[in-house]
Amino acid sequence: RKAMLRIFKDDPYLIPFESQIMARMRSYKKLKREIESQAGSIETFAEGYKQFGFIRDEESKKWTFTEWLPAAKQVFLIGDFNGWQKEKQYELQRKDDFGRWMVELPDKPDGSWLIPHGSKHRLCIQGPDGQWLDRVPAWAVRALQDTNTNLFNGVFWQPPPEEQRCLQHKRPPLPANLKIYEAHVGMGSIHPRVATYTEFKDTVLPRIKHLGYNAVQLMAVAEHAFYGSFGYHVTSFFAPSSRQGTPEQLKELIDAAHAHGIIVLMDLVHAHMSSNWADGIACMDGTDHCYTHGGEKGKQAQWDSSLFHFSKWEVLRFLLSNIRWWLEEFGFDGFRFDGVTSMLYHSHGINKGYSGGYNEYFGEDADQESHVYCMLANELVHNLLPASGMTIAEDVSGMPTLCRSVADGGFGFDYRLAMAIPDMWIKLLKETPDHDWDLGHIAFTLQNRRWKEPVVAYVESHDQCIVGDKTTACWLMDKEMYTHMSTLSEPSMIIDRGLALHKMMRLLVLGFGGEAYLNFIGNEFGHPEWVDFPTELNNWSYHHCRRRFDLAEDQGLKYKYFESFDEVMQACENRFRFVSSPHQFCTKKDNDDKVMIFERGDLLFVFNFHPTNSYTDYRVGHPWNEGIKVVMDSDEARFGGHQRLEWGHTNSHAPGAAWDNRYHSTQLYLPSRTCQVLARESILQGGVTIRLSPGTPLPGDWSFPTQELRLVELNGDGSEKKPGLPFEASPGGPAVTLKSPLPLKFRVQRESTALAVDQFLPYAPPAFVVHFPGDYLLNEHGSLICLGEHNAPTLPVGDPPAPGCKGLGKTESVSLRPLVKSPSIPLIGPSDEPVVEPKGKNVPDECIMLSPVRTAELSSASTKAPAETLKDKGAAPIQDATAAGKPSQGEEEATCSMERIYSFSALDCLVVKPEAKVRMRKDKEEKEKKDKTEQKAPKRIGYQARHLRTPVVVVSSEVNPWSKTGGLSMVAASYGYELATSGHRTMVVSPRYADYENCNYLGSTSLWLDGKFHEVGYYHQWQSYGDKRGCDYIFVEHLSYHRPGGLYWNPGEGREYGDNLFRFALLSLAALEAPLILNLGGSTYGEDVLFLANDWQAGLVPAYITHKYRRNGVYRRARTMFVIHNIGYQGKYSMSKFPPDTHLGLPRDAATDLFSAIDGPDCINLLSCGIKMADRVLTVSPNYAAEIQTPLGGEGLHEILLAKGAHLRLGGILNGISDEWNPAEDPHIAANYSITTVKEGKAACKAALQAKLGLHQDPTVALMGFCGRLTSAKGIQLIVDMIPWIMHDEGNGVTGHVQIIMMGKGELGLEQRLQEIKGQYQGRVCSYVGFDPKVEHQMMAGCDFLLMPSQYEPCGLPQMYAQAYGTLPVVHETGGLKDSVKGLWDTERDRVVATGFLFSGFHVNPLKERVWQALEIFHKQKDLFSQMQLNAISQNYYWPLRTEEYEKHIDWTMEAEACRP
Are 1373 and 1394 in contact (CB under 8 A)? Predict the structure, then answer.
């Protein structure tokens, strides 16, 4: 097609989505035409800062102030210039129907301004409801915090000309080999305080230049009221952060960076804004839809922020003008666009996974409004800065065409962040021993990027360093960093391993990971501490909000080795430019040898990751018919290595025979845990040539004759090696060529002058260092730039300087101090710093410190909620919703299709309203009663519980529908409902993760943790279940529960919250206080209660009862039952960091009850603690209770579980299924049926299901289904391996007559495999990546068989759903599957009881045997198949029977002595 966009030619997989992509292009072109018709061009449109805010009219001698407030009724400008009063002189008038308000401010008679420079001001706005509001002007170019109110005010910023900073230096050209130094100015100091722009300019910029990075990315630039938000909750979009200095000082920083040859990127936050309306622009005019969408569409629940309405004209002007403002006023060269994934999709990517399938990126979830904005924003940047402008997208989804030009049909970004790479490294370091690293997986992850869409690769960024996670160096070396980093300390294998792998990982990512590279400030030298901004949780400490540069400068510490390697690594890349080379070829990924070899550009990279094996004469293939030499290796002495590869630096490796599909080869020595880089000899000739810029290319004229310059070569100690050499004339400009051994150290001086170098070359260091032969350019500012090989062309010219102060003010150069040694600050000892965390799951990376616990009486309940109370104390406002959030679905939602993705059914239910539950249960009971009457069946006498008067308190970290990540939330909700309907007074206690609806504030109490009292609030919702029965749902309020990510971790960042131990210790204490202090229905629950604590998050409940409350005469008759839902998650923390006495408020003798023998005495194991201390332990199935008492299934806890079982205090009860799983009443299936109509009903449901999912409508085929997580643990690979066999018709009347439905989400490879299978067997296989609970109901009704070959399954629910619908499960004989499915082992014996098929041995062959049996019965033994369907549908797995089992255990627990571990 002539008009086909380039993206379709390059990527045919986009063609099925051509209509949507073309619609995006049409919307973009239409909006662009509208902008051009109104403003002339997009560049002119983006000059809103010349219309809004304070605008000077010098001719009329006045200022005008303009603001966009479409819903305002009246507006005043107030400030310290008028006593903060609403005065007529400062009243704004509405100027048009579009919402513009303006006031003229003429100069005073004496010529002075009505509002002086530096005046603080706000807008006083009467909103549409008549209420008066104070707001910071949206276009404010400076904002300052009032120390009295903690609120920000706008500042009128117009310094006199002599104080304005003019930007002088041309922008550097866009580097082809982009290497980014990610930095936060405020933490750019060794001192525990906020660093300034000037400090960063003077000390950090020279460091960046010295290390060899050519770009700096500044974070948290735009003003943000909450420093701890890392700059992501922007409040003033045109104002630079005031904590670090003035706008003029930021301009000086950027101008200095340009003189260094460093481009400056800004972390731009346009994906959302702060919801803080008092300081920001949310609700600017008194409505929730001024700059944002109204209602829920205008909220980003995970981030507690508000979302821009990109299609509004003035919002578009505001944002595009914001881009131009930072480029032209301050001189930024481009942007890292934050949160692009959230912009691309209506769902914001929440609860979605992206496997690379194109259908995941297009469709209804694609937010075309945001797409068009991204295209306009990128076009604006590249139009304004054609030679220097750059944009980077922070996108985790992998949206196709994101980094293709707008003209090609893309979004226009230059790069995207390769966010999967750091996640891979962290996962490997956390979970996999070195010898098990899969080099194929590592190579795949590093290479997994879209063609023609460049990525920025990195080992770690700020995301991996913030509190809750650790730097790579910490993961590798942990506490050893505090004792063995001295060069004089005893050798340490841990330090040696950490140093080796840290170097190898970084070089591997630089060489193989992308088209650009990124490093976070300080991580180049293995920074030993995480990043934690000052908050109330750490007593507003800056201790971890700084960078310890002094460690790398201390020659007595090994941190210098990390930094030296990073410096030479970057120098190697600057010389050979391999990052920008399209040639990338991996010749070997040997998992046995742990050797990876690849070519990039002109270099050969060889890595030996084996922890112990070194290889001599290891043959390595390469393409060059000449000798090759080692140019750098990680084992060099200057990098802290053992110098085992020194020979290869001075001697050539001759070429040999072809090898590994390469024309030539050589034999190398590969020491363990080393990497080496080799280059052919021909490109290593010619020495080092230092050229002087001729004047015009970079970036201006010399201020003195260059003939005066001399190059002085230096010895290692800095002394002069020989007299200075003049720069001789040459075709490329004046030059000096040296052939001295490398590295080469030199300085420049002016002949016949004693001036220090920084007096005539303001940005020159005291000495230059060159590590590799080639051409280097020294410009008139003193910046040395590697050009590459000899006779390389000079650099292209960058864009002109930014207008900055528009030509006014200073013009003299501002010099930089050379890099200086910072004063040394001693490291804090190991007792105060992180130590090696215990191995195991649920181990947080960093936790806040915990301190002794004591209770306090409940404050009197008032109408003032904790959110207001905490706000009065200066804390951050509590967010409205999180991912846990409000119930997202209810009984009334009846129109969802498979396009709408929910979580797995075991985590979801369609009926959440209490009245609906009660009605459903009542209808079911009446139906059962009627059936038994008609059948004249004897009345069943249920268990007669003896302790129904005992109140039950359920403690759970999540409860449906308010919060849920797994089955725990569903079971906790069932406990609340079932135990209440049984007759218990029932309370469920869980954190208040969000602002839940219909909850009343009861009051607060103070609990002692972290060395101080923490105020927790209690919110209450009563749910009535009829007959005066119901459940008290109690939600514990504390700031630590309000997080932008999930309940326990942030999935977008891939790490657990660092303060989880604190959060759930607080939950345990709050739950224990609740029965004593909460007056509910006229009385408290009192002391004589049963606590039902769930999983490791509530593991401290029995410990506090035993060691704290009972010792003080409280809860003597109370008992605890502890329920294990999954023993694989145990909650492990370091006891040396959190001693029980000083941090958890438990006596010292409690320590032995907090750890398990398998983990050792330094590991707090909350699950082990709950098992030991509880009066009874339950699991979610009887067979699982038996499995966890074995070494194989006990995850290290089998011995204490055996001991618990020996005392008859351990049991297992299958979870029940909810009443909604009833084919007779299910509203989501094609035909309702019961045991008497199962054949007809299932036939109708099968036909409807086949039609809906695009399968051939054939009632004679066996329809099999799978619904679950696509992970190896769920046995998906067994199904995938079985499908070709089961689909092939061999003429046996069994195989080949099958259809399969696979619905789930999980591992990328499995998702892709299912899509391939779907394409291979069109009309016979339906593979759906996602979850739809209504389709799952329809699968249970329409399928003949359910496949559930899980490797392990503590309980499992789908196999019970299936039987309720007469669908026969085929399951692995494990956990709850074995308890709930009765197998057909003997046809005659089992035909009247069998409900499914079980196979033993987790392998495809046993699965095939049982599937063959199932299919043979379906096709050839119809009577037996029908009988098994009747057997299955006759089973009763509903909750009432399960509840009777719980009542038995409650009776046994309450009547037994309390546990004494």
Answer: no
Concerning whether 338 is annotated as a catalytic residue, the answer is: yes
DSSP letter assigned to residue 720: B
Question: Which residue type does 28 have?
Answer: Y
DSSP-based three-state secondary structure for 1368? strand
Cβ atoms within 10 Å, residue 1225: 15
What's residue 467's pLDDT?
54
Alpha helix (H) ranges present in 1175-1219? Answer: 1182-1187, 1198-1206
pTM beyond cutoff 0.85: no
pLDDT of residue 780: 87
Contacts of residues 872-875 at CB distance under 8 Å and 24 or more positions apart, as own/partner, are 874/150, 874/536, 875/536, 875/1039
Query: At CA 847, angle to CA 846 and CA 848, rounded to 5?
Result: 130
Q: Distance (Å, rounded) from C-alpha 530 to C-alpha 834?
A: 10
Positions in the chain whose pLDDT score sits under 70 = 1-3, 467-468, 695-701, 804-913, 924, 928-929, 931-941, 1011, 1051-1054, 1461
The single-letter DSSP state of residue 102 is: E
At 1359, which amino acid appears?
Q
Task: Using DSSP, state whether 798 is helix, strand or coil.
Answer: coil
Give the per-residue pLDDT at 168.
Answer: 87
Alpha carbon distance 371, 375 (integer Å): 6
Q: Which of 394, 567, 775, 1195 is catalytic?
A: 394
Residue 333 annotated as catalytic: no
Residues 1300, 1303, 1306, 1311: is their CA dihedral positive or negative?
A: positive
pLDDT of residue 896: 28
Q: 337's torsion region: left (phi>0), alpha (psi -120 to 50) or beta?
A: beta
Alpha helix stretches (DSSP H) within 714-848:
757-760
Of the residues 11, 248, 329, 338, which is catalytic?
338
Q: Could you give the CA distance from residue 734 to residue 103 in angstroms, rounded to a whole number?
A: 59
Structure tokens at 541: 């400490």
Label the pairing between strands 628-633 and 674-680: antiparallel
Q: Which residues pair with 987 in a beta bridge?
A: 953, 1032
Question: Judging by DSSP bridges, how do beta strands 1000-1009 and 986-991 pair with one another?
Answer: unpaired
Element (H, E) at 103: strand 100-106
| Helix, strand, or coil (residue 710) | strand
Cβ proximity of 415 and 455 under 8 Å = yes
In this predicted structure, what is the pLDDT of residue 701? 64
Joined tokens for residue 435 = 């010898």
